Amino acid sequence: MLLLIAIGAASCGDVSNAPAPVTGPVVLTITTTTLPAATAGTAYTATLAGSGGTAPYNWLVTPALPTGLSLNASSGAITGTPGSNTIGTTTHTFVLQDAALGSDAQIITLTINPATLAIAPVTLPPGVINQAYSQTTLTATGGIPPYTWSVLPALPNGLQFNVASPGSISGTPLTGTIGTTTHTFTVLDSSTPFKQTASTDPPLSLTITSLFITTNSLPNARVGRSYSTTLARSGGVAPFTWSVNQSLPTGLSLNASTGVITGTAASGTLGTHTRTYTVQDSSNPKQTYSKSLNLTITN
User: Fold this and answer.
1) Pair (122, 205) in one structural domain
2) Torsion angle of alpha carbons 249, 240, 128, 293, nearest 10°?
3) Is the bond preceding 146 in cis, omega lying within 30 degrees of 0?
4) Which of 50, 76, 134, 280 falls between 20 and 30 A from 66, CA-CA?
5) Which residues, at least 6 apart from 178, have a Cβ–Cβ distance to it below 8 Å?
């Protein structure tokens, strides 16, 4: 009887000093379930997250990430710049391991979108009546080739626009097309399920003239030696006015009435100097034509 009482007293005594219950480690879990989409050609970063387990941790992925992207095994960070050949959605198994040999796996998809479709900046060179047009190509960037092009309104008579990729202008402007017109060029890519489009904004200007500069190259000048050469043109209505987009090398000048370049190149002007020369006629409205030419100065 006394034994029973003792046991009862002990069982009902103060338990504040009893040891805390033993708990096991929190289960290792990958908490990331989705990844943000990447864009081809654009730097990408995303970090996988996990909880529980025992540090340090180690991340693995199979199959390998698309070209240009890599997984940091210690931090779980995915970084890099995906290439243009990686567009699409891939599925990967990410595995997180801890120091206690625990592991967890998560299957996650990664989508890489094409870069935004755009038209590279371009300026259309002037065309000349009854002269073959200097073929000009419009270039698309981003999106998914092949591309299809269109133009509105149609080009002046005699000029054609190749709507296949790349878009190019060729042909010979016909009589009656003198003047400046503006055109909006549009490109359509092959993205799925939704195609991308891009247009020139503002529209591109195209000038057709009967006036043009026939000089294709300038003779070399020599430092300290007298120099003279004449820019030549064809078409247009006299009189003509010549100009240059920036000053000629020290010692040389352009005659605005005759298009003659004269003078003596000063020391310190050695090298090749590129300038854009423009001739304007007296028709109504006036016609202009510009051409870039190199002038090389030697000893």
Assistant:
1) yes
2) -10
3) yes
4) 50
5) 129, 208, 209, 210, 287
